[in-house]
Specification:
It contains 8 helices and 7 strands; from the N terminus they run ααβαβαββαβαααββ. The protein is of the alpha/beta class and 268 residues long. α1 packs across α7 and α5 crosses α8 (224-233).
Length: 268
């Protein structure tokens, strides 16, 4: 059984991706409201910011990851925490007319940008309670949004519910580097340089705050071993983590082929 990391008394095991960051909100309901506000207001700036901070390589990397993990013509793909729909639009182009791509995100503002980019099926929702049926998808993706869910265990059980038996999950994340020198460089870049450039170039204080929050969630995030253990605790098999450049984590797992269960929630 996974430990309760929520900081409150509960008989239900819970694993938040990071503690409450009191500089931004006081409690879990406050976290949801504040994070949604930041994303809604920052949505028109978000693609510019992420494109600039990745020096234009972000889209290429996401498309390469999709192909490496088996997205092809006819694939049914669910993109959770889709944001402005970068992964969803890339997946749409790969799966073609015989495939399906659904983009889910809690921010109406971000999904509006996704629709402008050409994403056809967008739905408001959270990872813990997906607005989809059971066993509908071959692959579930999440790009750099795992740090924003409330509970990893509940989320991963819900992900398994949405997948068909034998379906795959692919989670792309930025992880705090273990090398101290690289950690220092990444911290300066993401905590100070990116927010400052965002404020100057986009003239948005809220977008600047969002990028500061972006780094703070990376720094406070639970270690990769906890994420892998939560995937296993949710019932996934073939759980793996592939690391690129010491900081880009690709978490992958498979719903057991014989698993036809559709229940969601935290295992007891």
């Amino acid at each position: 059984m996974m430990p309760d990391r929520s900081g409150s008394a509960s008989d239900v095991p819970r694993l938040a991706p990071h503690p409450l960051l009191k500089n931004y909100y006081a409690d879990e309901p406050g976290r949801k409201r504040r994070v949604n506000e930041m994303f809604d207001v920052s949505a028109p700036h978000y693609d510019w910011i992420t494109g600039a901070m990745s020096f234009g390589t972000g889209r290429w990397y996401r498309g390469d990851a999709l192909r490496r993990y088996g997205v092809t013509a006819g694939t049914r793909l669910l993109d959770v925490g889709s944001g402005t729909g970068v992964i969803a639009k890339l997946a749409q182009d790969i799966v073609g007319p015989t495939g399906t791509v659904v983009a889910v995100d809690p921010s109406e503002g971000m999904l509006a940008e996704a629709r402008k980019a050409g994403v056809r099926d967008t739905r408001v929702g959270r990872g813990e309670q997906l607005p989809v049926g059971s066993g509908e998808f071959d692959i579930l993706t999440m790009g750099y949004a795992l740090r924003h869910v409330e509970d990893l265990l509940v989320t991963f059980r819900e992900y398994k519910r949405a997948l068909r038996p034998g379906g795959k999950v692919l989670l792309l994340e930025i992880t705090r580097p273990e090398n101290r020198f690289q950690y220092g460089l990444v911290k300066v870049y993401l905590k100070y340089i990116v927010p400052a450039v965002t404020r100057v170039a986009r003239r948005s204080a809220e977008a600047q705050k969002l990028m500061r929050y972006y780094w703070d969630t990376i720094e406070a995030c639970v270690p990769p071993a906890d994420i892998l253990a939560a995937l296993e605790g949710a019932g996934f098999t073939r759980v793996k983590r592939h690391v690129l450049n010491g900081m880009f984590s690709e978490y992958s797992a498979v719903k057991p082929p014989g698993d036809t269960g559709t229940a969601s929630g935290v295992p007891s």
